[in-house]
Amino acid sequence: MNPPFLLALQPGALPALSPRSRPHQPQLRAADPAVQAMSDFLDDPPRTIAEDAGLEEVVDHMFRLGVRVFLVVRDRSVIGLITAEDADAARSAQKSNGGAARALRAADVMTPAPDVPAIDWQTLQESRICDLIEIFEGSGVRYLVVLQNETASWSTVRGLIHRQRLERALRRD
User: Fold this and answer.
1) Nearest-angstrom CA–CA distance, 161 and 34
2) Is domain 6-171 in CATH 3.40.50.300, yes or no?
3) What is the phi/psi pair of residue 60, to 5°?
């Protein structure tokens, strides 16, 4: 089993996210427990990429692994999140600028950990799918990281909730 990734909490900051798709996801209903929508990293370890990985390497890994999100790590700490949408936007911007001289890295494109939307594991356990829908609609975010507090200053990234995957699971008949 992989060791958990740790996040150093800064006062007032919310930490980072993670990825990976399940082969089969059951249908969900608004009244179901919210934990059913989470990719649990205890069962399915998160996909990670080093902060100094080149943007093309990130895109290549996403494509080969069939994932749309990576946790960006330094040593064993999560420092951010990079999505396929982030990578595509950065590549497009770079092309429109005539292919900037310096190659972009994951750290240049990622959303820093303090800016990644997150929900506490305890809160998620007490929530329903309808609560997640409300969060996603109210915030407009595409992902929610689930953090499990280990101490007052450290959390582990317990899981990830993908808005698009949740919406697909709710539409299934």
Assistant:
1) 9
2) no
3) -60, -45
The verdict on pTM exceeding 0.85 is no
In whole angstroms, how far apart are CA 6 and each of 72, 108, 147? 12, 21, 10
Please give the C-alpha separations between residue 112 and each of 71, 119, 122, in angstroms, as whole numbers. 10, 16, 23
20: number of Cβ within 10 Å: 18
pLDDT tens-digit readout, 46-105: 899 999 999 999 999 999 998 889 999 999 899 999 999 999 999 888 888 776 546 899
Give the three-class secondary structure for 148: strand
Q: Is 55 helix (H, G, I), strand (E, B) or coil?
A: helix
Helices 129-139 and 163-171: angle between axes, nearest 10 degrees: 130
Q: In angstroms, how far is the first alpha carbon of the chain from the final one?
A: 35
A 10 A CB-CB count for 31 gives 8
Measuring CA to CA, which residue among 45, 38, 48, 68 is closest to residue 161? 38
